[in-house]
Write a structure and sequence with these properties.
With 377 residues, the protein is an alpha/beta fold. The chain folds into three domains: 149 residues, Rossmann fold (3-Layer(aba) Sandwich), CATH 3.40.50.300; 72 residues, Helicase, Ruva Protein, domain 3 (Orthogonal Bundle); 82 residues, Arc Repressor Mutant, subunit A. The protein is built from 14 helices and 14 strands. It has a five-stranded parallel beta sheet with strand order 5-8-11-4-12. Helix 8 crosses helix 10, helix 10 crosses helix 11 and helix 13 packs across helix 14. The two termini are 23 Å apart. The relative contact order is 0.12.
């Protein structure tokens, strides 16, 4: 669920949180929009682990500081890779409950059969494999913040149960009779348009209104073009620090940053900088990195994955993931980017499919499926 801005390090024009002459963005000074630091003629801005001086980011910082001291639920929307979890963690860091737990759950990474136990916990023996009592996310986040990423991936049945907890502050562990009272601030996030999700029946309207007391939209990277080079320098500086190198961006890289569309947002930028860093001897060339990442596929006739009519949605998803993974030459990072999901979600899906092999569940890959992949998915 981390979307790429969780870095720090000494970067020209980027404030160092450990530097004595720079005052960090702290909870006790919530009215301060962000921390400012001037290098050369540019005023760089940073809010915790979020970087950017664009108008859209300044507006985002202001929203964060306004809602953080309250107990209001927050619904964060934005494309994959924009940094929604970082926004949630920053709201928690600036809240009055910053010393309490911050618990994050990716709703899309947990199977529908297990998400109730993960949210509310379970008693020993409540189901097969429940060998001991387990505290759920709500219980572990007591007094603090629970972050629910990919909210719209949650089943409608679970949305009803979540709504009840939000309304009453009470829940029961799976297999238990007694209810537990809990006080938790819930911050949810989705990469879909929330209102459209309600209109299409993916998100319950009552849950939407309960969570969107304070809605926040995270801008895409292409909406904050002036921040691209700053972010790239942050990522490169971190890599230089880790490897003890002094690599620099080539002139063509700076041109590439401004011309590329960045469909994968900040996560894609971070991954591309890392690939270019690995390939570079001294000058880091982003254009070369994107060329190196493009897989070579031969012997295929079309650019589609075909499914028999009547296939289960879960089966279609699994086939698409495996087909995309093959298209990307086994590169899981690029596969996640192409599919528009986080790398963590992809790993969880693959682990889930692997577990099916060991439990003897049928493998959809072995059902005579014909997969043809070429230049697109």
């Amino acid at each position: 669920m981390n979307n790429g801005l969780n870095v720090c390090g000494a970067v020209l024009g980027v404030p160092d949180r450990e530097h004595q002459n720079v005052t960090p963005f702290q909870a006790q000074n919530d009215e301060q929009d962000c921390m400012r630091h001037t290098a050369a003629s540019d005023a760089m801005m940073r809010c915790g682990e979020l970087y950017g001086s664009s108008d859209s980011m300044q507006h985002l910082y202001k929203l964060i500081t306004k809602v953080a001291p309250t107990r209001a639920n927050v619904l964060i929307s934005g494309e994959s890779g924009t940094g929604k979890e970082l926004v949630a963690s920053e709201i928690h860091r600036l809240s009055r409950e910053s010393d309490k737990p911050f618990v994050a759950l990716n709703c899309g990474a947990i199977s529908p059969q297990l998400i109730e136990a993960e949210l509310f916990g379970h008693e020993r023996g409540s189901f097969t494999g429940a060998v001991r009592m387990h505290k759920g996310c709500f219980e572990r986040a007591a007094g603090g913040t629970l972050f629910l990423d990919e909210l719209t991936e949650m089943s409608m049945e679970m949305q009803v149960k979540l709504l009840r907890v939000l309304e009453t502050g009470r829940f029961s562990r799976v297999g238990a009779d007694d209810e537990i009272q809990v006080k938790v601030r819930v911050i949810a996030a989705t990469n879909r348009d929330p209102q459209q999700a309600v209109d299409t029946g993916i998100l319950r309207s009552d849950l939407f209104y309960r969570l969107s007391v304070f809605p926040i939209s995270v801008p895409t990277l292409r909406e904050r073009e002036q921040d691209i080079e700053l972010l790239a320098k942050v990522f490169l500086a971190r890599l230089n620090e880790e490897d003890g190198t002094r690599k620099m961006f080539s002139k063509s890289s700076r041109r590439f940053m401004n011309e590329y569309h960045w469909p994968g947002n900040v996560r894609e930028l971070k991954n591309m900088v890392h690939r270019a860093f690995i390939l570079a001897d001294q000058d880091v060339d982003l254009a070369a990195a994107i060329g190196a990442a493009k897989p070579v596929v031969s012997g295929v006739e079309s650019d589609c994955v075909t499914f028999p009519l009547g296939s289960r949605l879960a089966d279609a998803e699994q086939r698409l993931i495996f087909a995309t993974l093959g298209y990307c030459g086994g590169n899981k990072t690029q596969t996640a980017e192409v599919l528009g999901v986080s790398l963590k979600t992809l790993y969880n899906r693959l682990n889930e499919y692997q577990s099916k092999v060991f439990t003897g569940e049928p493998d959809v890959q072995g059902r005579g499926m014909s997969v043809n992949v070429n230049s697109g998915v």
